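WARN  no MSA supplied for this record, continuing single-sequence
INFO  ligand: 1-deoxynojirimycin
INFO  echoing inputs
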Amino acid sequence: MKYIWILFLGLTVVSMTVPSENNKPKVTITDTDPSKEIARKVDSILSLMTLEEKIGQMNQYNGFWNVTGPVPENGDAARKYDHLKKGWVGSMLNVRGVEEVMAVQKIAVEETRLGIPLIIGFDLIHGYKTMSPIPLAESASWDMEAIRKSAEVGAAEAAAAGINWTFAPMVDVSRDARWGRVMEGGGEDPYLGSKIAAARVKGFQGEDLSAVNTVAACAKHFAGYGFAEAGRDYNTVDVGTSTLYNVIFPPFQASIDAGVKTFMNSFNDLNGIPATGDEFLQRDILKGEWGFDGFVVSDWGSMREMIAHGFAKDGKHAAQLAANAGCDMDMESYLYVSELAKLVREKKVDESKIDDAARRILTVKYELGLFDDPYKYCDPKREKSVINAPEHHEAVLDMAKKSIVLLKNENNMLPLAKSGMKIALIGALASDKNSPLGSWRIAADDNTAISVLEGMQEYKGNELTFAKGADVSIGKTQFISETKINTTDKSGFPEAIEAAKNADKVVMVLGEIGFQSGEGRSRANIDLPGVQQELLEAVHAVNPNIVLVLNNGRPLTIGWAAENIPAIVEGWHLGSQSGHAIAQVLYGDYNPSGKLPMSFPRSVGQVPIYYNYKNTGRPVIPAPNLVFWSHYIDEDNSPLYPFGHGLSYTTFEYSDLSVSSNFRGNGEITVSVKLTNTGSKEGKEVAQLYIRDMFASVNRPVKELKGFEMVSLSPGESKTVEFTLTRKELGFYNNQGKFVVERGEFQVFVGGSSSATLNTKFNL
Ligand code: NOJ
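INFO  complex generated
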């Protein structure tokens, strides 16, 4: 290794370490002002780069192994290798494992002119090998520390496998259970979604981004993707200013406040402009108003898709629109690498925009410590010891238990007695070791989850009989759409019915297989797929003592079950430790405390359904039998299970709600309530506070979550829970995108779900 010293225009002194064998400069030190050190180093390296090399930083290729989208035109491996060697690639995705990452990083560092390391991206949606519950499930915990921890575990494993950047968290608010990607998000509420976004960002990035167990996070998909029309993935999005600013934007802003390093734009068009080419979103709002100083990556091929949208004339035009709009990195469109230099020379894109994008990307690379040691994430020993570490399994088990929601428990059907019973366990999902791993689990090993059957088998006091009854779908794979083909085979029914007849209690595990939700998995019907409803009714006919455990990636329409089945447990897709978590809840070794992050509709025709709706001018029946009010003639307006709903094996009572107002334009309002455990078991309750701004210059929702608190109580114990409301909670964005706090009357509700009725009022 020899050292050369270069003095750049008197700006700063940079030391370049050059491996003598291959002439590769590597910037290592030094500046006297540490706060500006990275910026100066980045400027120094930028000044060494050709236009093509700077554009190269803006180019991201998929690796040669996993594919998470359609392969683009000219997307052949030979071309990618060639570009990699020329220094025309700044990042790769879906390259994982120390060996694979080492292989591509070595080319970037040792075979390119400047030896700039790659940033390696990966979808760490809910874990790397040790799988956490799907994000929607985790969101049901309302436990920010557990969610942060879960992201931390995922980051540690991914970073040990050579990865240093994740395309997560997905912070898209969604009100549409038909959209398969609700499984990736925080649910329907912007306030809860913002807290979750911040927790995930902190979990991924930790305190020190350059540590070997943290990765850069990415808030996605900016913006509006969760509002795809009719819940059909990639569909157009049309939303007004009020929804955009008050519902869609907040979790993105919260991600920035939490220090997120990157953003991803989205596939959808928003009010007619594809997000990838949207200057208002990326330059005016994100980098302008919000002052975001990280970089923006496109979604997979979303730049080229602007042609199909009808927004770009051709690939060159698409690259021009995206670069000018503020999209810094091209994921798998191949357009920046092929078009951007020409566009700069033709003065259609100003070179300052290229500099800005490259600077943003290089800065994150510096912050990750890649310039100090490009192979820092590539230690095979660490890879071996960190991945699947026992403490990671403990953390995801804890997360899984906290994610379970007890939807119904008539006559204390649950928990199950631990001995002296015959239990029939029915449903293909009960023995499924793959589905609990959920969708978006690229690195997970197939069939490695603990199944419900395995979890229940650990309780030896009862006689347990298992019968599959029926499969759900014939599909088992991640990227092929055969999952939509549900089985019609009922040959397993008689065995299941027989088992139920001979049992004291029946546990049925029904729902969706792991790949029936996720990207490209929109459903027009959100009932129990296949013949599962028939199976449920057939079993119920011979033994109604059923505990229904749902495994699913989205709210389902389970109206019949809600009416006829005494106990229902929402068990989502809970990850590697799923079966243990579910069994511990069923047997009462864990008292559930989860609360729904999304409303469960009664029927799909109610969708989009959400608790924070606007009142309308005709909210109530004006006179008996009159039809002229906002309702359906064939369905209730209310959801089957509301946002925030979730029971416990104990019961809670709320009383003594009071408000102490000391606001005077800028202060705080304290709301307090007494919460009592009125049941016979120790338990946790998520106390939720909602406000209603009674009248305002823009209609406000009938309820808005503005605070929540997790409280543990022993039987008979009471605690006073306090919430604080400030300008931030009491204001809103008006239709000019301006945050305002308006005087007037507010109603405040506190309770165990969005249906809370205990309320009082105050004036601002
Ligand atoms: C497309 C998805 O929309 C995005 O969320 C993901 O990060 C990329 N593919 C990369 O896999």
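Residues 83 and 375 are 20 Å apart (CA to CA).
INFO  checksum written, moving to next record
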